[in-house]
Design brief:
Elements: H1 7-30, H2 34-62, H3 72-103, H4 107-137
Length: 141
Protein backbone atom coordinates (compact mmCIF):
# COMPACT_ATOMS: atom_id res chain seq x y z
CA UNK A 1 0.00 0.00 0.00
CA UNK A 2 1.35 3.43 -0.93
CA UNK A 3 1.37 5.92 1.95
CA UNK A 4 -0.96 8.89 1.40
CA UNK A 5 2.00 11.26 1.78
CA UNK A 6 3.58 9.70 -1.34
CA UNK A 7 0.55 10.32 -3.54
CA UNK A 8 1.56 13.84 -4.69
CA UNK A 9 4.80 12.35 -6.06
CA UNK A 10 2.85 9.57 -7.78
CA UNK A 11 0.43 12.16 -9.18
CA UNK A 12 3.28 14.18 -10.69
CA UNK A 13 4.73 11.02 -12.21
CA UNK A 14 1.36 10.02 -13.70
CA UNK A 15 0.86 13.52 -15.14
CA UNK A 16 4.37 13.43 -16.64
CA UNK A 17 3.74 10.02 -18.16
CA UNK A 18 0.43 11.25 -19.59
CA UNK A 19 2.08 14.26 -21.23
CA UNK A 20 4.86 12.11 -22.73
CA UNK A 21 2.34 9.56 -24.03
CA UNK A 22 0.20 12.31 -25.56
CA UNK A 23 3.17 13.84 -27.36
CA UNK A 24 4.35 10.42 -28.50
CA UNK A 25 0.86 9.52 -29.70
CA UNK A 26 0.70 12.77 -31.66
CA UNK A 27 4.06 11.98 -33.24
CA UNK A 28 2.83 8.50 -34.21
CA UNK A 29 -0.31 9.82 -35.91
CA UNK A 30 1.79 12.36 -37.82
CA UNK A 31 3.81 9.35 -39.03
CA UNK A 32 0.52 7.64 -39.98
CA UNK A 33 1.13 4.85 -37.46
CA UNK A 34 -2.47 4.53 -36.30
CA UNK A 35 -1.93 1.42 -34.16
CA UNK A 36 0.91 3.00 -32.14
CA UNK A 37 -1.09 6.24 -31.87
CA UNK A 38 -4.05 4.36 -30.46
CA UNK A 39 -1.90 2.49 -27.92
CA UNK A 40 -0.26 5.73 -26.72
CA UNK A 41 -3.53 7.59 -26.42
CA UNK A 42 -5.26 4.78 -24.53
CA UNK A 43 -2.22 4.53 -22.24
CA UNK A 44 -2.42 8.31 -21.67
CA UNK A 45 -6.09 7.89 -20.82
CA UNK A 46 -5.20 5.14 -18.35
CA UNK A 47 -2.43 7.20 -16.78
CA UNK A 48 -4.74 10.20 -16.46
CA UNK A 49 -7.45 8.00 -14.98
CA UNK A 50 -5.04 6.61 -12.38
CA UNK A 51 -3.94 10.17 -11.64
CA UNK A 52 -7.53 11.26 -11.03
CA UNK A 53 -8.16 8.38 -8.62
CA UNK A 54 -4.91 9.05 -6.74
CA UNK A 55 -5.59 12.80 -6.64
CA UNK A 56 -9.06 12.31 -5.18
CA UNK A 57 -7.84 9.79 -2.59
CA UNK A 58 -5.09 12.18 -1.52
CA UNK A 59 -7.31 15.25 -1.20
CA UNK A 60 -10.11 13.36 0.55
CA UNK A 61 -7.49 12.18 3.05
CA UNK A 62 -5.44 15.36 3.48
CA UNK A 63 -7.66 18.21 2.35
CA UNK A 64 -6.20 21.22 0.59
CA UNK A 65 -2.53 22.10 0.74
CA UNK A 66 -1.58 25.74 1.28
CA UNK A 67 0.99 27.35 -1.03
CA UNK A 68 3.88 28.67 1.06
CA UNK A 69 5.43 31.13 -1.40
CA UNK A 70 5.09 34.89 -1.05
CA UNK A 71 5.48 37.82 -3.42
CA UNK A 72 5.52 37.46 -7.20
CA UNK A 73 5.75 33.64 -7.15
CA UNK A 74 2.41 33.51 -5.34
CA UNK A 75 0.75 35.31 -8.27
CA UNK A 76 2.46 32.94 -10.73
CA UNK A 77 1.29 29.94 -8.71
CA UNK A 78 -2.33 31.08 -8.61
CA UNK A 79 -2.34 31.94 -12.34
CA UNK A 80 -1.09 28.44 -13.14
CA UNK A 81 -3.44 26.83 -10.59
CA UNK A 82 -6.56 28.63 -11.82
CA UNK A 83 -5.88 27.91 -15.49
CA UNK A 84 -5.01 24.30 -14.64
CA UNK A 85 -8.16 23.80 -12.55
CA UNK A 86 -10.55 25.32 -15.08
CA UNK A 87 -9.06 23.37 -17.98
CA UNK A 88 -8.82 20.14 -15.94
CA UNK A 89 -12.57 20.34 -15.45
CA UNK A 90 -13.19 21.06 -19.12
CA UNK A 91 -10.83 18.38 -20.40
CA UNK A 92 -12.75 15.43 -18.96
CA UNK A 93 -15.76 15.65 -21.30
CA UNK A 94 -13.50 16.61 -24.22
CA UNK A 95 -11.37 13.49 -23.70
CA UNK A 96 -14.45 11.28 -23.41
CA UNK A 97 -15.94 12.66 -26.63
CA UNK A 98 -12.60 12.42 -28.45
CA UNK A 99 -12.02 8.81 -27.38
CA UNK A 100 -15.59 7.71 -28.12
CA UNK A 101 -15.39 9.19 -31.61
CA UNK A 102 -12.08 7.44 -32.27
CA UNK A 103 -13.28 4.07 -30.98
CA UNK A 104 -16.49 4.48 -33.00
CA UNK A 105 -14.28 5.07 -36.06
CA UNK A 106 -15.83 8.50 -36.68
CA UNK A 107 -12.39 9.80 -37.56
CA UNK A 108 -13.48 13.05 -39.23
CA UNK A 109 -15.31 14.09 -36.04
CA UNK A 110 -12.48 12.67 -33.90
CA UNK A 111 -9.90 14.83 -35.71
CA UNK A 112 -12.06 17.93 -35.39
CA UNK A 113 -12.27 17.73 -31.60
CA UNK A 114 -8.82 16.19 -31.07
CA UNK A 115 -7.29 19.42 -32.41
CA UNK A 116 -8.64 21.09 -29.27
CA UNK A 117 -8.41 18.19 -26.85
CA UNK A 118 -4.75 17.34 -27.39
CA UNK A 119 -3.14 20.72 -26.59
CA UNK A 120 -5.49 21.30 -23.66
CA UNK A 121 -4.81 17.83 -22.26
CA UNK A 122 -1.05 18.32 -22.59
CA UNK A 123 -1.38 21.72 -20.87
CA UNK A 124 -3.38 20.23 -18.00
CA UNK A 125 -0.83 17.43 -17.54
CA UNK A 126 2.14 19.81 -17.68
CA UNK A 127 0.62 22.40 -15.36
CA UNK A 128 -0.30 19.61 -12.94
CA UNK A 129 3.42 18.84 -12.69
CA UNK A 130 4.19 22.56 -12.31
CA UNK A 131 1.69 22.88 -9.44
CA UNK A 132 3.28 19.83 -7.79
CA UNK A 133 6.76 21.41 -8.02
CA UNK A 134 5.55 24.70 -6.60
CA UNK A 135 3.66 23.04 -3.73
CA UNK A 136 5.98 20.21 -2.75
CA UNK A 137 9.45 20.77 -4.18
CA UNK A 138 10.20 24.50 -4.03
CA UNK A 139 11.81 25.88 -0.89
CA UNK A 140 10.61 29.21 0.41
CA UNK A 141 12.23 31.32 3.11
Amino acid sequence: MIPVTSLPHLNALLNSVSAILLLTGYWFIRQRNVAAHKRCMLAALGSSGLFLISYLVYHFSVGSVRFQGQGWIRMVYFAVLVSHTVLATAIVPLVVITVVRALSERFDKHRAIARWTLPLWIYVSATGVAVYWMLYRMDFP
